[in-house]
Design a protein that fits this description.
The protein contains 2 helices and 14 strands. With 316 residues, it is mostly beta strands. Strands 1, 2, 3, 4, 5, 6, 7, 8, 9, 10, 11, 12, 13 and 14 form a 14-stranded antiparallel β-sheet that branches. Strand 1 and strand 2 form a beta hairpin.
């Protein structure tokens, strides 16, 4: 399964949209309850391999590494969004009657698009006769992504069935929702070498996961699902950046553990989505739940190559 991302960032100071491709990522069944890592809707972050901690990501820097807020020119306002295209193939091997391998049979082929967006703003200030430069920023961006659609065909594997590969049913799992963060941070850069910063994030959101089975011969459908709403919580973010030279930058971001409290409503057969984890809540139709995200440490580095200058002198 692959996700390809195209980002569009609008900056009031750039007066032009930016496009950039992003890396591939995946959302597994086991991550449906906690969500996949959200993408910062910034073209620079995607084009540089999502370094984030090692480089400032424009007006979204408060959410990635607040230490770099002081390195940005201010003021800066950005509005960004991305379109994710997910292509998923699932195959099973086919064998002949002598147990000889024939071909890989595709039973799930999914192709879909997801949309997300955010905004950010940064201001920076350098006092006169001071080696320090201060910056402050606020941003709104997704941090966890629950969007996922999976569909598979279930066919008769009996070689003597007529017609061959008779359709028995359809399975589908559909996930929607996000957890978004409002990040408020500040940072200071000293002597253009060392940067320190901190931010506070308010996380909120919800998601819905639906499981459905269609029985073709009986023309009957069974559906189950879990809806989680009103998730909310806080976490702290600390950042550090070191620039030993104008061509190399090193950065570290630490995000504290956080627990998001919310409500859930269950429908259908709880065994259908047992892979979500937290099975202790499934016997109940509704109630309260808590999702804990552990500490995160992100280490990034960036290298800026220098172009070699060529000079030719012509005497006339």
């Amino acid at each position: 399964m692959r996700r390809h991302v195209i980002l569009v960032t609008l900056a009031t100071l750039l007066a032009a949209p930016l496009l950039g491709p992003g890396p591939a990522s995946a959302l597994t069944f086991l991550e449906l309850a906690t969500g996949d890592e959200g993408l910062v809707p910034d073209a620079r972050s995607a084009a540089m391999g999502r370094t984030r901690a090692g480089e400032a990501t424009g007006a979204f820097t408060a959410a990635t590494n607040p230490a770099l807020l002081g390195t940005l020119p201010g003021p800066l306002v950005m509005l960004g969004g991305h379109v994710l295209r997910m292509k998923e193939y699932r195959k099973t091997p086919a064998y002949d009657s002598f147990d000889g391998y024939l071909v890989e049979s595709i039973y799930a082929l999914n192709d879909e698009y997801h949309f997300q967006g955010g905004f950010g703003a940064v201001v920076a200030y350098a006092p006169e006769n001071s080696p320090a430069r201060w910056g402050a920023g606020v941003s709104y961006a997704p941090v966890r992504d629950f969007q996922y659609t999976y569909e598979e065909e279930v066919r008769d594997i009996n070689a003597f069935t007529r017609p061959r590969d008779f359709l028995l049913g359809l399975h589908s799992v559909v996930g929607t929702g996000t957890v978004d963060a409002v990040s408020v941070g500040t940072g200071v850069t000293l002597w253009d070498k060392l940067s320190l910063g901190a931010a506070l994030e308010y996380l909120s959101g919800g998601y819905d996961v639906a499981y459905q089975t269609y029985y073709a011969q009986e023309e009957r459908t069974e559906a189950s699902g879990l809806a989680v709403s009103a998730l909310s919580g806080y976490r702290g973010v600390l950042g550090l950046s070191l620039t030993p030279g104008h061509r190399v930058a090193l950065g570290v971001t630490w995000k504290g553990e956080t627990t998001l409290d919310g409500d859930f409503v269950w429908r259908g057969d709880s065994e259908d989505l047992a892979f979500l984890g937290g099975t202790d809540i499934l016997p109940f139709e509704s109630g309260s739940l808590a999702i804990t995200y552990p500490h995160e440490i992100v280490v990034g580095a960036s290298y800026h190559p220098r172009a070699k200058m060529l000079l030719s002198l012509i005497h006339i």
